[in-house]
TrEMBL record:
One of its GO terms (biological process) is alkane catabolic process. This is Uncharacterized protein. PANTHER family: BLL4220 PROTEIN. It comes from the Bacteria.
Amino acid sequence: MKRMRREILAGSAVAVLLLTAGCGLSDNKSSAKGGSVQPVGDSKALDAYGSGSGSGSLPGYGSDTGAAPAGGAAAAGKGGAAGELKVREAADLGSVVTDAEGFTLYRFDKDTAKPPKSNCEGDCAKAWPAVSADDTSAGAGIQAGLLGSVTRADGTKQLTLGGWPVYRYAKDTKAGDTLGEGVGGTWHALGPDGKPSTASKGAGGAGMNMGTGSGMDMGSGAAAQPQVSLSVRQNAQLGPILSDAQGRTLYRFDKDSAWPMKFGCLDACLDTWKPAPAIDKTKVNGIAAELVGSVKRPDGSEQLTIDCWPVYTFTGDKEPGDINGQNKQGLWFAVTDKGKKAKAAG
């Protein structure tokens, strides 16, 4: 009996070691731009997070691929014409374009404007209904000459603004919602000039395109790849902490888990804490590359991990270098250059 117990304990220890090492092994063997850790946990929990059965998910779209929620933009038939476009001021976003009913309109960083082309098809288009070019006009604050159309794969005409295809978001259930902002790091509320709405909020964000791997759009329509996607900066209170290419502080969540890798930030949590998109681990500065990895979220998008912990940005951080998310609810912490939780200097 004692021998059997020792064998069971030994087997459990090996399993734990393999699982613990799995994140690092997967990251080290993966290429700089590909490969990620698959989170573990029972499938029922993952289904509840919006992953469905695991089929039909589209990596990078950062959206649920199932049916739109009741009352949402898609459920309400919001894939049609927008009517007269309007401009409204949204908190933290600046000037945002809406349709005639006040629903926020969005753009996708993986589309192109020159020439206009939509890369959101199939399941992606269920979560992000294309806005029809028919019966759409420019209201106050929008130049009529910026409106156009692009022919989608199904032959329909989609509205474009400044060359960018225009969408609604299925989870926006009422006028004024901006739940699609920052989803997957690639979806953004649309500004009246066709740029992301955050780009028009002043010099600090002028022309900034927050898309995954897309660099910074300085208004010329051409993207310039940033040299460093992840870096370390010295904070007077917290010491050396990590920030993304736009200078935003990166945080980890105590209700997530690294071993085994599970997600505690889901659904409404993601309206406040945005998963940091995966990066090319060769473009980091001040942190060991082996600490940098990625994990596939239940919605199919790839999230950056540091020392196997998923990391996020905080919508309450208004300027590069802000640390307003530090110790929020006693659960959220900036990440150090060693991949640990940051603590205020004594």
